[in-house]
Structure formats: C-alpha cells, structure tokens
Amino acid sequence: MENTIKDTSSEDFESGYSEVNGLKMYFEIYGQGKPLVLIHGGGSTIQSCFGRIIPLLQQNRKVIALELQAHGRTSDRNTELSFEQDADDVFVLLQNLQITKADFFGFSNGGTTTLQIAIRHPEIMDKMILASALARRNGVVQWLWDFMPQASVENMPAALKEAYLQVAEDPKGLQVMHDKDARRMIGFKDIPDQQIAAIQMPVLIINADKDIITLEHALELHRWIAGSSLAILPGGHGGYMGEITTLETGFTSGQLTVLLLEDFLNK
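Above: the chain sequence. Below: its structure as tokens.
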C-alpha cells in the first residue's frame, strides 16, 4: 500500500492518492475530530456533490471525502462499476488511512454504496446517513428508467460534465465514466430485503419531497431498518445539500441539513 499526500493546509485540507485494489484513489481530508466519510453520487466529484456543505461539516468533524472508480481524479480499472466493488474500495482506502471506525454519509449512488459497506464491512461503520439512496428498482421515478437507454454524454447534466473536466487528468475519461455509470444503473438489481433488515447500526434516511427517489421508497427503507430515523426535506435530488445540479441561487438549506446531521451523529 502506498499513500501519496499533498499538503494543502493553506487551503484548509489535505489531498492525496492511495493504492486501492488496482486503483489510484483520490481523497481529501478536512478538519479534526471523529471521522465522517462522504461518498458521492454517480457522475460526480467531491466538489460537485459536497462542496457546499464540507465547510460546515469540517467545523466539528474529520471529514474524509473520496472519488470512486473512474470518477473525478480516481483512475479506472478494466472492470464494470458495481456498488459492491465500490464498497470494498472504500473499505481498503480507510484501512490505508488507518481509519478503524467512522460515520458515513452517502448520497444517491453513494448511498447505495454506503448500504453495501454496512452489509459487507459493518465493523468499520458506526452510524450511517443514507441521502436519496436506492435499494430497489421500484424506488426511483419511472421516467429515469425510461431515460436510461437513451442516456449519453451529450444529455448528461452540463454541471457534472464541467465538474469532471475541471479535475480529471484525461478528458476522454468522461465518456468512460458516463457509460459505466449508465450500464450499472440499467443493470441495477434489488438489494435483498434480508440484507437490509440485518443492518444494526444507527441509520438516518434523508429524502427530498421532489426527489428522483420516491417518498414511498424512503419510507420502505425506514421500515426495513429497525430503529432508523427518517427526514423528508424540501427540494429536488440533493437540493438539501447544494448538490450542483440542484443548487439554487442564495442556497442556505445546507445549514439546516448539517444541523440535522450533527443532531443524529452526536446522539
């Protein structure tokens, strides 16, 4: 294992790469305190997904943000994307960073990856926040499945394309990332109910009232996971945290979201 860390303390964070299952995985570390791991959504980077709330989260936490296979600054491997492999990659990264226990906040596809971490590597997880996470195919609005077969880089959200191109070493990787993400979603299979019901750690489920993840699905997750908490917030997919494709002018709801997260994490 090799970690390469660039000291960016003047920018209030450290960044680096770690050798992870054949990947050169990029990560950033902010603040001090108990570790909170942020796992981004499909097609995203750290900044496009979490850039608006990291400054708030780092005030009381050691925030570890990362980029998954083929996303942002992390390299690709000659395999398709899977949530299970992403979960294993995150686990190895944290081992490399000598993190033995952490809280996790996963958004969208990152929420599904976080579910897989809870299933495959529960020993590293203390508390889990699932933000707009998908566990079953019927948990997403139908228009998304109707759109996926026609998905292309050309109709990918411009903000996500720009965010990728701002940080990636090779702009040709955009096509690869997009196509692998699209194939993963087209082939998405339900996580078995018994695996979700077996989750033991404290869980907070967050969904937006105009999300692409249905309110019914968020409620199902809440019912499957004993003792979990559920919060429904106003806005679209990720609007409650300022995700770049739903970021609104004068965004302020991040403060409310972070207060909600801290209340859950500090109990």
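The domain at 3-265 is CATH 3.40.50.1820 (Rossmann fold).
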